[in-house]
Amino acid sequence: MTTNWYNNAVFYELYIRAYKDSNGDGNGDFRGAIEKLDHIKSLGVDCIWVMPHYPSPLLDDGYDVSDYLGVHPDYGDLDDFRAFLDAAHARGLKVVTDIVMNHTSDQHPWFQAARQDKNSPYRDYYVWSDTGTEYADTRIIFLDTEPSNWTYDDVAGQYFWHRFYSCQPDLNYDNPQVHEEMFNAIRFWLDLGVDGFRVDAIPYLYEREGTNCENLPETHDFLKKMRRMVDDEYPGTLLIAEANQWPEDLLPYFGTPEEPEFQVCFHFPIMPRLYMVLKKGDKTPIVDILNRTPAIPPGAQWMTFLRNHDELTLEMVTPEERKWMRQQYAPNPRMRLNLGIRRRLAPLLDNDKRKWFLLNALFLSLPGAPIIYYGDEIGMGDNIWFPDRHGCRTPMQWDNDRHAGFSTAKETYLPVLCDETYGYQQVNAAAQEADPASYLNLTRFLIGTRQSLAALRSGQFVWVETGNDAVLAFRRHVDGTDGVLCVFNLSDQPQTFILRRPRVDVLSRPEVKMRGKVGLRPYACHWFRN
Ligand code: BGC
User: Fold this and answer.
1) pTM of this prediction?
2) What is the distance in A from the centroid of ligand 1 to the CA of 348?
3) 346-397 pLDDT per residue, tens
4) Angle at which helices 353-365 and 270-280 cross, to 10°
5) Which of 12, 261, 435, 459 is 20 to 30 A distant from 294 in Cα terms?
6) Does residue 3 surpass a pLDDT of 80?
């Protein structure tokens, strides 16, 4: 079994714009984030994923890149980026950045040149049509706003292809020059010292008539080529695949030992099922999806998450499950977006610490490299009345000073939350420091406990039969050692569990030895070691 740093790692998703504003312009920036690296380090995480930091009109919060080789002026400049990287590395934190491969902003000079001149070499950087009728079997992802994957451009006199917003034209990967451009971007950031990339939206790189234009063989060929380049020139670089797909379609993104693609792939289908099992008090959905998840190559890893910067996506569930999830978790239509739910973790769980602790303990003990979304470590809320996904991207709540200690500006890029339950006066990092039972200290406790147990970091996974659908149990162990037995009561009713031999629960403080028939309180969770 090959073990690399990322196999065992816990990640933290950082939105620079939301984190800390160092120059009082109302936007978070790299200098501000440097001030807060000790907070990130204190959580016990190993690696930071920085959401897109490139120059961009920010119509999709930076996933609309207008220059792959720069830093958004609101966030700082290249020196600030370097300083951030050095400061993170000095604390033993790795840094991966987002790289948006599938599309650019329509403000990117390539697109501007392409639309203006049919004969420009940049024309072929994008995908054009005279009729806008091709690839009709391709689904629309941003269903709420985009009527089609084709948009007519007056200047170009043709339609261009886009899987996301119409301000994000897709790049044409049939053009090898596009490969070179993206490779140069990758080289640029690796030369600066980043440890890897979260590679955005990779299923959609190629289009072929008669297909759904996702996961095509041509896409895999390109990804193998990218991996070869990175391995040859920058060995050890981490590449993480963002592919919102079923487990069997995800497997090819790991590639093969001879022809690898990504070391780590997000496991999207697990996520909604974590919420399902909790609401149903029935473990079946999570058992089914894990049983449907194929074994992955040695040294590869899944990435797991509870929430991220997007809506809680419900693409990887059945239509009935989606309907049920939206009824349960998004009763107000305003909470819904595209196929998903635009709410943060704490509000989804009714701000109930028992549910929050259980879900965190569950996802921190399942196989995979977990990632924590900024703000969820203090139980931040959301504002469903902000457009798009902005309600889950509000400024980090540091203290109860003006703008939650985020900024000294008059106005911030989005207002800080100030409602009765989740407003910064109630929810902020400073207030939570002193309280051992705060979200913040529970996060540190859970991550720290996981980090101290090799079986949870990288052990094998075995189901443990409980004879009770409300009680989920599994064992994680390294090479046949006894490992850690994880037991969760998913229901709001007391349950029992039989321990075949006495074991110590490391989630009780202080640790307690238990034996025989163990009573499980509603939403109880235990990590038992010998
Ligand atoms: C990102 C979204 C973004 C989309 C288009 C997704 O994978 O997570 O935030 O809107 O890609 O780049």
Assistant:
1) 0.97
2) 22
3) 999 999 999 999 999 999 999 999 999 999 999 999 999 999 999 999 999 9
4) 140
5) 12
6) no
CA-nearest residue for atom 8, ligand 1, is: 310
Can you tell me which atom of ligand 1 is nearest the CA of 142? Answer: 10
Rounded mean pLDDT of 480-497?
Answer: 95
For ligand 1, say whether the CB of 170 is within 6 Å of any of its atoms: no
Q: Using one digit for the tens of pLDDT, what is the confidence trace for 185-194?
A: 999 999 999 9
Instruction: Say how far apart CA 521 and CA 526 lie, in whole Å.
Output: 11
- The number of residues making up the chain comes to 530
Q: Are 527 and 504 in contact (CB under 8 A)?
A: no
**C-alpha span between 61 and 54 (Å, rounded):** 10
pLDDT of 276: 98
Report, as an integer, the average pLDDT of 108-133.
98
Q: What's the pLDDT at 2?
A: 58
Q: What is the DSSP letter of 193?
A: T
- Cβ of 310 closer than 6 Å to ligand 1, yes or no, is yes
Q: Which residue has the tokens 């000294």?
A: 408
Distance in Å, CA 355 to ligand 1 centroid: 28
Regarding the beta carbon of 63 and ligand 1, being less than 6 Å apart is answered yes
pLDDT confidence of residue 430: 98
Structure-token pair, residue 524: 């109880």
User: Ligand 1: distance of its center to the CA of 309 in Å?
Assistant: 9
**Cβ count within 10 A of residue 379:** 25
User: Ligand 1 within 6 A of 49 CB?
Assistant: no
201 lines ligand 1 (CB under 6 A): yes
Q: How high is the mean pLDDT of the chain?
A: 97
User: Are the C-beta atoms of 475 and 268 separated by less than 8 Å?
Assistant: no
Instruction: Collect all residues with Cβ–Cβ distance below 8 Å to 452 and sequence separation of at least 6.
Output: none
The span from the CA of 524 to the CA of 514, in Å, is 14
Closest CA to 69 of 109, 31, 11: 109
- Which of 50, 51, 166, 200 gets mutated to test ligand 1 (max ligand atoms within 8 A of its CB)? 200
Tell me which residue has its CA closest to atom 11 in ligand 1. 201
Q: What would the pLDDT profile of 400-450 be if each residue is shown by its tens digit?
A: 999 999 999 999 999 999 999 999 999 999 999 999 999 999 999 999 999
CA dist 244 and 265 (Å) reads 10
In 166-242, which ranges are E strands?
A: 196-200, 238-241
Annotated catalytic sites, by residue? 200, 242
Q: In what order do the strands lie in the sheet containing 495-505?
A: 460-463, 471-477, 484-489, 525-529, 495-505, 512-520
Instruction: Round to whole Å and give the CA distance between 132 and 186.
Output: 32
Around Cβ 521, how many Cβ atoms within 10 Å? 12
